[in-house]
Predict the structure.
Amino acid sequence: MDMNSVIDLRPFLPAENYELAKQFYLDLGFILQWGDEQLCCLQAGEFRFLLQNFYVKEWAGNFMMHLMVKNADVWWQHIQDKKIPEKYPDITAKPPEMQPWGLRVLYLSDPSRVLWHIADNRKT
């Protein structure tokens, strides 16, 4: 098998409240590619994930996504400008900080408690 033949990888994210989670990602700036009442595809740049109308608390609470970006500060400012923490008061939203492993990471959870590590590789 040729691993270079892989052309896409799409994780399935859980949603406790599917419509609320979908709106969260749209508010964050993801683009809805397609969807129905059970599943939708959301995209940022060339990257996509599938949001599903399915939820298991233990799974969602341990599910994490890692998103590398050019500048985590720009993402943090966008999150603040869109008032994401105010619109979704039960989420986690922490500004970028340098981590011991060498990346600057901002932490953002969605309404289902899926934790996003939005990181950059800048040293300042």
